[in-house]
Design goal:
Keywords: Cell membrane, Elongation factor, GTP-binding, Hydrolase, Membrane, Nucleotide-binding, Protein biosynthesis. With 597 residues, this protein is an alpha+beta fold. Helices cover 24% and strands 34% of the residues. The structure holds guanosine-5'-triphosphate.
Length: 597
């Protein structure tokens, strides 16, 4: 296809504003997929995505469109992940296209993720087409949303297209506006091959599938290509496009988006953002701006049943095949035995992986407190990247500790503003900005990431009854008074409950954790002290009283089946517990103890 008849675009939206539904309608309106094959939300492949309603892997589709000008066009839609954890993937896929549809739910208005993603689109020099969705609903208010888009985002909303992705109203206008308002791609067919690796994933039959955007040159089956960042050379055994099912083609030229396979075994060998060129006739240099995505949140995953360790290893190996941004290494814990220390792009990423292990592999897990990476500067001048609070060196050797900070943007209706400010303040936040758009406030806070990784988002949702939206980006590291707090149960430290805290907040956190644990740990035949300590100093303490009676005592000499039932019940209760010294701690204690109210 010649360049002037190609348009490449992505869709920017807040979760639930209708991105997937709109994509489905565009595919349907152009007969890309025969009606009988049309499933709701074609682009969200994985079950778990569908259940949670979040798009995780970028997907793509090639749409053929006969426009009103009588010409035939090829439109390539790249579906970008909507969540902040995948910001780097979003920014790469944005660089693979020239424009974006900015979808805003006209019953809701602009939200935090709309903002975060729209700035990425603007950074990538995109033309933007505002699309106001859900006009079939009575609460739809296009004028208000237009005003918001102009005030908050600062772009012209006069060309906005009102649509209903549900009924299909306005879909033609969207297609026509893509042709009229988005620029065609640029590129030189005769130049050496220069292609961007936009995404990659593992397929059980084909091996790794690599999504590429050709900038210059032509890619053909059989070509030997080099991935410039890691230097590997592969022979291309298949190229094609997504319609959205895979269809092989003879070649891909400038401006086109498609896939290649080349007997690549692991997603790890393909770095998003890398540049692909011919081995024999390479391009002058890689595309700018490559950076590998780095995990920022770490936690330990241990099987509840230690006999399942090998199964867990197998599950983690398999998941990692398809997810280059998930890192892991073996970890042993005095209390929890063998497990893995895993790194994630963010909390959602952590939750998705944990869910998949529990569900798809049927392994019950203990997840330790999520932690961020601290920079620990030692008195001898060395620096340690601390991923696990349990590894914190003795304080006498430590000079100072730095922690990662984020810039958080929160949009919230006026009436909840006070609660949101209090929450941010409680989490050691520093207010940077506060502005109003209509009846909603936008607050920007500088916050420590470690105060956000655990339950910030849950708390935000609960204090605002779900009306706030939230997004963040990492800004850098800053020194603060941070210490390791240990929890001791029956005088034994439980390393899985160790955490880094700010010194001023340690007593409060310690007390809260001891109180929680006292409720979560069942009584034993003996008295159990539960303590929080910094270094050797106890800063909080609770005591769990001893259990006075044997559960079966009352049945002595009585009905044997009743006795058996009671004992079985006790055994079932044990299954989900782990022994620490002489004490059984239930699985849910590890998570619940860390939640702050
Ligand atoms: P993520 O994939 O989670 O980012 O969400 P999304 O932006 O793709 O939203 P999705 O397409 O899943 O739509 C969210 C909900 O809104 C679904 O229940 C849709 O059926 C509904 N919806 C989407 N568009 C319309 C519309 O035009 N009108 C109405 N009434 N509902 C819509």
């Amino acid at each position: 296809t010649d360049l002037t008849h190609i348009r490449n675009f992505s869709i920017v939206a807040h979760i639930d504003h209708g991105k997937s539904t709109l994509a489905d309608r565009l595919i349907q309106a152009t007969n890309t997929v025969p009606d009988r094959d049309m499933k709701e939300q074609l682009l969200d492949a994985m079950d778990i995505e569908r259940e949670r309603g979040i798009t995780i892997k970028a997907n793509t589709v090639r749409i053929e469109y006969d426009a009103l000008d009588g010409q035939h066009y090829v439109l390539n839609l790249i579906d970008t992940p909507g969540h902040v954890d995948f910001a780097y993937e979003v920014s790469r896929s944005m660089r693979a296209v020239e424009g974006s549809l900015l979808v805003v739910d006209s019953t809701q208005g602009v939200e935090a993720q709309t903002l975060a993603n729209v700035y990425q689109a603007i950074d990538a020099d995109h033309e933007l087409i505002p699309v106001f969705n859900k006009i079939d609903l009575p609460a739809s208010d296009i004028d208000r949303v237009a005003e918001q888009v102009e005030d908050v985002i600062g772009i012209d909303a006069s060309g906005a297209i009102p649509v209903s992705a549900k009924t299909g109203e306005g879909i033609r206008d969207v297609l026509e506006s893509i042709i009229a308002n988005l620029p065609p791609p640029e590129g030189n067919r005769d130049a050496p091959l220069k292609a961007m690796l936009v995404d990659s994933w593992y397929d059980a039959y084909l091996g790794v599938i690599v999504l590429v955007r050709i900038k210059d040159g032509v890619l053909k089956k059989g070509d030997r290509v080099r991935f410039m960042q890691n230097g590997t050379v592969h022979q291309v055994d298949r190229i094609g496009v997504f319609k959205p099912s895979m269809q092989t083609v003879d070649d891909l030229g400038p401006g086109e988006i498609g896939f290649l396979t080349a007997s690549i075994k692991q997603v790890r060998d393909t770095r998003v953002g890398d540049t692909i060129t011919h081995e024999k006739k390479p391009c002058d240099g890689p595309l700018p701006g490559f950076k590998p995505s780095q995990p920022v949140v770490f936690c330990g995953l241990f099987p509840v049943d230690s006999a399942e360790f090998e199964d867990l290893r197998d599950a983690i190996d398999k998941l990692a095949l398809n997810d280059a941004s998930f890192s892991y290494e073996m970890e042993t814990s005095a209390a929890l035995g063998f497990g893995f220390r895993c790194g994630f792009l963010g909390l959602l990423h952590l939750e998705v992986i944990r869910d998949r292990i529990e569900r798809e592999y049927d392994i019950e897990l203990i997840t330790t407190a999520p932690s961020v990476i601290y920079h620990v500067f030692m008195k001898d001048g060395t620096k340690i990247d601390l991923h696990n609070p349990a590894d914190m060196p003795d304080l006498t050797h430590v000079d100072h500790v730095e922690e990662p900070r984020i810039k958080a943007t929160i949009l919230v209706p006026d009436e909840f503003l006070g609660d949101v400010l209090k929450l941010c303040q409680d989490r050691r936040g520093i207010q940077e900005d506060l502005t109003y758009a209509g009846s909603r406030a936008m607050v920007v806070y500088d916050l420590p990431l470690n105060e956000v990784v655990f339950d910030f988002y849950d708390r935000l949702k609960s204090v605002t009854k779900g009306y706030a939206s939230f997004d963040y980006q990492l800004t850098g590291y800053r020194q603060d008074n941070l210490v390791k707090m240990q929890i001791l149960v029956n005088e034994e430290p439980v390393d899985a409950l160790s955490m880094m805290v700010h010194r001023d907040r340690a007593e409060m956190r310690g007390r809260a954790m001891c109180e929680k644990l006292k409720d979560l740990i069942p009584r034993h035949m003996f008295k159990i002290p539960i303590q929080a300590a910094i270094g050797g100093k106890v800063i909080a303490r609770e005591t769990l009283a001893a259990l006075r009676k044997d559960v079966t005592a009352k049945c002595y000499g009585g009905d044997a089946t009743r006795k058996r039932k009671l004992l079985d019940k006790q055994k079932a209760g044990k299954k989900k517990m782990r022994q620490f010294g002489k004490v059984d701690i239930p699985q849910e204690a590890f998570i619940s103890a860390l939640k702050m109210d």
